[in-house]
Specification:
By secondary structure, this protein is α+β, with helices and mostly antiparallel strands. Helix content is 39%, strand content 21%. The protein has helices spanning 2-13, 33-46, 66-79, 92-104, 109-112, 136-145, 162-177, 181-210, 218-221, 226-239, 247-259, 323-327, 354-360, 365-370; strands spanning 21-26, 50-55, 85-87, 118-120, 126-128, 211-212, 215-217, 267-270, 273-278, 281-284, 296-297, 303-306, 309-317, 321-322, 332-336, 342-343, 352-353, 372-376, 379-383, 387-388, 401-408. The protein has a 5-stranded antiparallel sheet. The protein has a 5-stranded antiparallel sheet with strand order 11-15-18-19-20, with no helix packed on it. Strands 12-13-21-14 form a 4-stranded antiparallel sheet. α4 (92-104) packs across α8 and α8 (181-210) packs across α10. The longest helix has 30 residues, at 181-210. The chain starts with a helix and ends in an 8-residue tail after the last strand.
Length: 416
């Protein structure tokens, strides 16, 4: 209510053209939720402000807890609102509680910086917290002086919720020995926000050398000190839109990345996504459709679907696999890799494991795992990125009809 009436005063005194609207998020967690929505709607109508109630669904089984699930649903509603600016009424006491909560969770400097006074949400809306430096008591006095009514959330009395426990049990005890503990904690959060901003600047500098698009070079990381390496990894995960894991998991990731050999491919599960080392770089493994459960026979079609891509077969002359040679096989089919395949794509070189050819060609690991291989009566005839088998007279020579193959993968260059 304080924020609503303060903005109405600003509009009336300074910015008469300011377009105001109010968004109320209805979590549906309290028996009084409908009443709160009605109260807010009436308060907005009384001062001529448009009102919108957004009902959200909160996952009560969220392993992070009910508070975290409600916050996620609330911020999704915030990100989707049709506004340029979104103002929230968090105050200095909220900031102190957030710092304590994050400190007790073992958060790093970014978490201890607590709530920023301004940031941009995923939907492009700019979020502001104009009351963040004001004590709660001052805001309540301002409301009383103007005889403005407000509603107290009944869950604020429930000390089983951690934030309420800190507000009602911990901060009052701290106040017995320390003057204005909430103010001191809020000032500490501001200093930590400066440290977090400095760490971000350092990470951005390191990223210019170590990051290429959505991948992170392990070689570049190894030139950094351990603390800058950890800082850069957090920056990289945020760049990918992932929440950084806790300190122990982050240190384990760093340990495995430090020891990763050129052909090692450790995987990590972070915030519901999977990352993997490939070609001495760390990146996200793309999501994919399922591959065919069995061999896929080819009977002259121009296209065979393969997962979320396809293999194209194009008639040619003097290129690819000889049409006459293919007709000698009783069964031609696409199959996924199983390991141990041998191929000689170069007649001047010996037959070698396909794994060696792929590693030598620096083919990304996710492609190696999903690539289709063309077989004729148990003989490997073609592998994407590597080429056609040169054994016997398999290749179409000048003037001879043939077939060329290519593997087309969404958002990737065709592999052929």
């Amino acid at each position: 209510m304080a924020l609503l009436h303060a903005l109405v005063e600003v509009r009336g005194n300074t910015f008469p053209d300011l377009q105001l609207s109010a968004l109320h998020v209805h979590h549906g967690l309290s028996a009084h939720a409908d009443g709160w929505s009605e109260f807010c709607a009436a308060a907005c109508a009384a001062v001529g402000v448009r009102f919108h109630c957004e009902r959200v669904s909160v996952d009560r089984g969220d392993p992070r807890g009910l508070e975290a699930a409600a916050r996620q649903a609330r911020y999704a509603a915030f990100a989707g609102c049709a506004a340029d600016w979104l103002l929230l009424a968090h105050h200095r006491d909220d900031q102190a509680e957030t710092l304590l909560l994050n400190l007790l969770r073992g958060a790093g400097v970014r978490g201890l910086a607590a709530m920023p006074d301004e940031r941009r949400l995923a939907g492009g809306v700019r979020l502001l917290r104009p009351f963040l430096a004001m004590p709660r008591a001052e805001i309540l006095d301002w409301l009383r002086q103007r005889d403005i009514a407000w509603v107290e959330d009944d869950s604020n009395a429930n000390t089983a919720l951690r934030r309420n426990f800190l507000r009602r049990r911990v901060l009052p005890v701290l106040g017995e020995s320390f003057p204005d503990p909430a103010g001191a904690l809020a000032r500490a959060a501001a200093r930590l926000a400066e440290s977090s901003a400095l760490a971000d600047e350092i990470a951005a500098t390191d990223a210019r050398v170590a990051m290429r698009g959505d991948t992170l070079s392990l070689a570049a990381c190894k030139t950094l000190s351990p603390v800058r390496r950890a800082n850069l990894l957090r920056h990289f995960l945020r760049h990918l839109g992932l929440r950084a894991p806790d300190g122990r998991q982050l240190q384990e990731m760093l340990r495995q990345l430090e020891g990763a050999a050129h052909d090692a491919a450790p995987r990590f599960r972070v915030d519901g996504r999977e990352l993997q080392v490939s070609g001495a770089c760390l990146g996200l493994r793309p999501g994919h459709a399922e591959l065919p459960p069995a061999a896929l026979p080819w009977r002259g079609e121009s296209r065979l679907d393969w997962g979320d891509g396809c293999v194209r077969f194009c008639r040619s002359v003097g290129e690819g696999l000889s049409e006459a040679a293919l007709q000698r096989f009783s069964a031609i089919e696409l199959r996924p890799r199983r390991g141990g395949e041998l191929l000689r794509p170069d007649a001047r070189r010996p037959r070698r494991l396909l794994k060696k050819w792929l590693a030598e060609g620096r083919v990304p690991l996710w492609q190696r795992e999903r690539m289709p291989l063309l077989w004729g009566d148990g003989q490997l005839l073609w592998a994407p990125e590597i080429g056609y088998a040169t054994d016997g007279d398999l290749l179409a020579t000048s003037g001879v009809p043939g077939w060329t193959l290519s593997w087309e993968v969404p958002d990737c260059a065709p592999a052929g």
